[in-house]
Amino acid sequence: MVLKIFFPQCCNRAESGLLVGRWISGHDSAVVLAVIHYPFIPGQVKQYIQQMQAQSGVELTVLGSWSLPKEGQESMESFLRDLSTIFPQQRWLQVSRQMGKMGFICEVVNRNQNGQETQQEAKKQNEEEEEKVIFVHYEQRKVMLSQLHPTESGDPDPNTEPSSELKQVFQTVARSQPLFFLDRYDDGPLKSTHWQSEGREASIIVELLKQASVPLCMLISWLLALWTWICNIRIFSLYPLRFLSSKLSTCVQISYRTEHMRTLSSPKPAAGHKQFMRKGNILVSFLVDVGLGILLMSWLYRDDHIATLANMLMPAADHVAKELEELLQWLMGAPAGLKMNRALDQVLGRFFLYHIHLWISYIHLMSPFIEGILWYGGLSVCLGLTFALSLLSDMVALLTFHIYCFYVYGARLYCLKIYGLSSLWRLFRGKKWNVLRQRVDSCSYDVDQLFIGTLLFTILLFLLPTTALYYLVFTLLRLVVVLFQGILHLSVDFINSFPLFAMGLRIFRPYRLAEGVKFQVLCDEPGTALHLLMEINPLKCSTVVQTYRTPTYSCYPRDSWAALVKKLFVGELIYPWRHKSTKAD
Amino acid sequence: MGPDGAPGPAVPWRKVLWERQPFPDNYVDQRFLEELRRNEGIRQYRYWAVVKEAGFVGQQLSCVAIFITLWLYMEQSLLPPETLLWSSLICALLGYGLHQALTSRVESCGEPRTHLADLQSAAIFLSFTFGFSPVLKTLTESVSTDTVYAMSALMLLAHLVSFPYAQPSPPGSLSLNAALFASVCLASRLPGALHTFAMLSCALLVFALWPCLLQTLRENAPVHFTGVCMGVCIGGIVGLGSQTLGGAVLLTLALASVTLLCPFLLVRLQRHKDNIHGPWDEAEIREDLSRFLH
After folding, report:
1. What pathway is this protein said to act in by its record (chain B) (predicted)?
2. Other C-beta atoms within 10 Å of A485: how many?
3. Is B164 within 8 Å of B172 (Cβ atoms)?
4. Which of A439-448, B108-117, B179-188 has the highest mean pLDDT?
């Protein structure tokens, strides 16, 4: 039977008095929160404790007595023992310390049902029937501010007790904040020793910010309401616009940021640790994003960079078109010595060349407006670096739209051919696909069917290399574009979801996010109890990132490699990146 | 204990296992293997009958040889495509008339094909072939000649192997398709689109329509059937011989071995046949169960 007493470090040198704290139910331990000094009136102490219990919701009791006699003071042993009759308890702790010695001596007085006292002393550790006492010293401020992980998900009922002892200790100290507001310089009926804050005067900036945040939140929520009303106007819910806005990543990013702002601007303070961290992360990442965006903007608008970019864009588009034309000419010849069917080759090549010609005319039509568009578009970069990246991704998608079209044509043609070939191959062998049974069955065909089937099979088979080559080339081009867009989206995602606030907290105040505790032996003298120092183990950085990641429309590959290769082989259209829609939290 | 062992006890042994007998379970008496029968239901082949049947196989081989001959003539531009087209048309009409004449004698049960349906089929064939022949002509342009010859040879071999010799009238899918594939490969090597069209029509005639006629001949005029087979064989040898003498010799050897040597071997080896039957065979239902259907 080991009794653990959690003792605050600030009370190590306190003057004699009463120990106030809480017994941990279910475990043999007690948490000492404060020491109330002499002289005191017991009635006032009881009143104070009840008041504190109502305010904080923690079951505070008087645990026992503490005596640290100064020079010249007699020991007050008998007086302290008599106190136990004033504050009736199941167990009464009498802790005493000598000046100059490190260890404490603790006597536990148990009161059984009949009211008789039995007394046991803690002596040496190898006597087994007697109760041993361990003093665990903790730093009150750190434990008060710390949050033990893994936290429960959702809002736990504040009345249910967590089962782990450590969690109860942390929770007790954290919730006893009203107890710690009693200042030692106050002129009140009670004097106590516990952790003291430095005073409200030192954190005046924080107080000012807190006061200013309320009207700011109201302003932001009003702006958001206006913006949402604009977005919900009927004209914007027409099908083409809605489809377009779901595909453009800029619109997605805007809606995402609106969601964030809505979380931030709610006037209620954060309920629970997770909400608080979420708000902190959102705020910090938003500020960093905007900061980077403003940096980028200042670079763009300086030295006429926008005009340079606009002037570079037209030749770049022309260059891409010319490269594509050369590629098609090469395909129309005899590429890599492959056996292409000349007629089909010419047809396909001319078809695609005509498309490129159309595209280039369109771009040339738009060229006078490019600089204006870039200039105004650059203004929106001040909303954040993520916007700049989304805009870039959208512009790349628009500029390479013709590659996407070619890819779709090539893929559809190839898919049709593969499908026809597989069906006609079954006809060649005299078999047929049974749709009902989902298997291949034999079938007796007519002469006409056989004849036409064989002709078509031969034609499709010999035209396969040509189509396959065009498909391959355009698929590769499309994959390059998709890869580039994917990188942009991944970086946007990273900026959105990385928990900067939590990482900052972990680096600068590691005790705030605790994974567990570690104990260090302070004093192990015979004749006194064992003294341990409890230090907080901070959470690992990887766990921080994993726990506090903001859920985003995370962008990850939809198919495994095997499924992707199979889709490419059959000719199905591939959209490799899947966007998870934002889940309501 | 076996059949030659010492005489057993007075109780005779019965071939049952549900009764306790004083014999061990694996005891057999001298009636062992009494019910063994050898070579039951074996057919005795007669040489000339088998030769007559094997003639059909030789006939098909010669058909293929004739087709190749025609192709060789067309490739060397010795045979103009119009001639081939007209002669194919005339042969087709003659064959159709013969077919109708032979089948009208026999009252066939089931729905006969009307003339309109036949005309429709013919129209589909011709239009498709004519429409696709420019495309078909360019199919093997970039493929090397050796590959084309190898593919065609393989496909014609597959055609010969999978041909339904027992019942050629509904044509087997694989054999017909293989023959058509080979003919498309060969036809695409010819100099013009009309050549391709002519070749394909000829292929259709030889591989798809000729076996139907043969089937009706076999059913209705078996005497003439043998004569026709022999005629085709001789025609094949002569045709091939006019182009390559070596080919003709090869064809003669092949025909001789298929029609004369193989039946001889079959009859000779028949006497070495040794099948055993007995009550341990799988049961075969010999009864006609169709009376349960009504």
Report:
1. Glycolipid biosynthesis; glycosylphosphatidylinositol-anchor biosynthesis
2. 20
3. yes
4. B179-188
Q: Do B185 and A341 touch (CB under 8 A)?
A: no
Average pLDDT, stretch B13-23? 84
- Please state, in angstroms and as integers, the Cα–Cα distance from residue A353 to each residue in A365, A383, A401, following that order: 19, 40, 15
Question: Could you give the number of structural domains in chain A?
Answer: 1
Q: Give long-range contacts, CB 8 A cutoff, 24+ apart: A44-50.
A: A44/A189, A44/A190, A45/A18, A45/A190, A46/A87, A48/A189, A48/A190, A49/A20
- Chain A residue numbers with beta carbons less than 8 Å from the beta carbon of B181 are 428, 454, 457-458
A90 pLDDT tier (thresholds 50, 70, 90): confident
Query: Given an 8 Å threshold on Cβ–Cβ distance, is B177 in contact with A452?
Result: no
pLDDT value at position B263?
A: 93
Q: Nearest CA of chain B to the CA of A237: how many Å?
A: 50
| Domain encompassing residue A133 | 2-193
Two structure tokens written together for A424 = 């006609």
Shortest CB distance from B174 goes to which of A341, A430, A457?
A430
Q: Which of A334, A339, A463 sits opposite B143 (nearest CB)?
A: A339
Residue A72 has pLDDT above 70, yes or no: no
ipTM: 0.80
Residue type, A227: W
Say yes or no to pLDDT of B282 above 70: yes
Is the predicted pLDDT of residue A126 greater than 70, yes or no?
no
**Is residue A154's pLDDT more than 60?**
no
Opening angle at CA A41, ends A39 and A44, nearest 5? 130
Q: Which residue has the higher pLDDT, A470 or B110?
A: A470
Asked if residue A414 is part of any domain, the answer here is no
Assign residue B259 a region (left: φ > 0; alpha: ψ between -120 and 50; beta: otherwise).
alpha
A156 located within any domain: yes
Between chains, do B177 and A458 touch, taking CB under 8 Å as contact? no
Contact B58, B255 (CB under 8 A): yes
Secondary structure class of B144 (helix, strand, coil): coil
By three-state DSSP, how is residue B197 classified?
A: helix
Tokens (6 digits) for A405: 């079209």
Average pLDDT, chain A: 80
Residue A309 belongs to what H/E stretch? Answer: helix A305-332
- φ/ψ of A524, rounded to 5, equals -130, 55
Enumerate the residues of chain A whose CB falls inside 8 A of the CB of residue B174.
428-430
> How many CB pairs lie under 8 A apart between chains A and B?
77
pLDDT tens for B249-258 read 999 999 999 9
Estimate the crossing angle of helix B173-187 against helix A401-429, to 10 degrees.
130
Highest-scoring range by mean pLDDT, A128-142, A371-385, B185-199, B279-293: B185-199
Whether the CB-CB separation of B246 and B254 falls below 8 Å is answered with: no
Q: How far is it, in rounded angstroms, from Cα A365 to Cα A19?
A: 85
% of chain B residues with pLDDT over 90: 48
**Structure token digits, residue A423:** 């069906």
